[in-house]
Amino acid sequence: MLAAFDVPADPDDLLLAPPPAVTAGTPPTVVHPGAAYGSKRWPAERFAEVAAVLHGAGHRVVLTGSAEEREPATRVAALAGLPDTAVLAGRTDLAQLASLVAGAALVVSGDTGIAHLASAFRTPSVVLFGPVPPERWGPPATGPHVVLTDADRRRGEPFADDPDPALLAVEVPDVLAAVGSVVGARAGR
After folding, report:
1. Residue 189, pLDDT score
2. What does the DSSP assignment read for 73-93?
3. pTM for this one?
4. Which residues contact 94 (CB under 8 A, 6 or more apart)?
5. Beta-strand pair 61-63/106-110
6. What is the pLDDT of residue 5?
């Protein structure tokens, strides 16, 4: 797009400088259960299980999303045993969300905008893919990211109302193992 307007750009340079107001204190673990389309929404119960395990392991878990995603995020928090204060869905603007992601210890999400922010800020992430192959929109292989999907089960309908089978094939233990590998790799740096 930039080249079409004669703006010089490196198509492989996907990084952003962190915003000046990165969140202070213990870096949060951001769990983002929402997505614009059902085909990209992993079940809330699974996100809740992941959030509960991470919280139990000492992570400061926060749940993000748009105002429209507040109810599902609140449901995930309740199922995970997290306090209402952990639900930031609908309570952050884009600049606050960018600061949160830039300063996060980890992001766990589906294939949605917050995953792209994690890639751009090199924030460790575990990204769950359904209808769209990660080769198309996934994080760069050089970053602290893990992609989970089952390509053999991909239906490939990005605007469907129900979760893509490739996404549903990803189980909670898969996500927790990926979190362990991303967090472990970061600690080893």
Report:
1. 39
2. HHHHHHHHT--GGGB-TTS--
3. 0.89
4. none
5. unpaired
6. 79
